[in-house]
Amino acid sequence: MPVRVLTSRRFQKLFLKLSKRERGEIDRAITALKGGFGSPHAHQGLGIRKLVGSLFEMRIGLDLLILFWFEEGEVVLHFLGNHDEVRAFLKK
């Protein structure tokens, strides 16, 4: 069953700063996430990894990661960046 995907304001701001190509890659990944989240075999293909609690990361290509929370049947996309930016964000 598809999950509902929401975006935080922070995610929206970061998304709009990306190139058109990168935004397209993210849109395709989000579409796949909607249909595949909750199915362990699909998780592997989507590049999803559980970090802690309900916090997950999803790999987009080689350079981008999305941090999101999954609660009560909803995915909330919260942060977007490269490995160093994600690491710095998680340390906050």
Secondary structure blueprint with pairings:
Layout: E1 4-7, H1 9-16, H2 20-36, H3 40-46, E2 48-52, E3 55-60, E4 64-71, E5 74-81, H4 83-91
Parallel strand pairs: 1-5
Antiparallel strand pairs: 2-3, 3-4, 4-5
CATH architecture: 2-Layer Sandwich
The CATH topology label is YaeB-like fold
Strand content: 25-35%
Helical percentage: 40-55%
Low-confidence segments, ≥5 residues, pLDDT <50?
Answer: none
Describe the sheet with the most strands: 5 strands, mixed
The dominant shape is globular
Count of separate structural domains: 1
Q: Look at the structure and give the CATH class.
A: Alpha Beta
How many helices? 4
Strand element count = 5
> Topology as H/E string?
EHHHEEEEH
CATH superfamily: RelE-like
Describe the protein.
By secondary structure, the protein is of the alpha+beta class. It has one domain: YaeB-like fold (2-Layer Sandwich). Helices cover 45% and strands 34% of the residues. It has four helices and five strands. It has helices at residues 9-16, 20-36, 40-46, 83-91, and strands at residues 4-7, 48-52, 55-60, 64-71, 74-81. It has a five-stranded mixed β-sheet. Strand 3 and strand 4 (64-71) form a beta hairpin. Helix 2 runs antiparallel to helix 3.
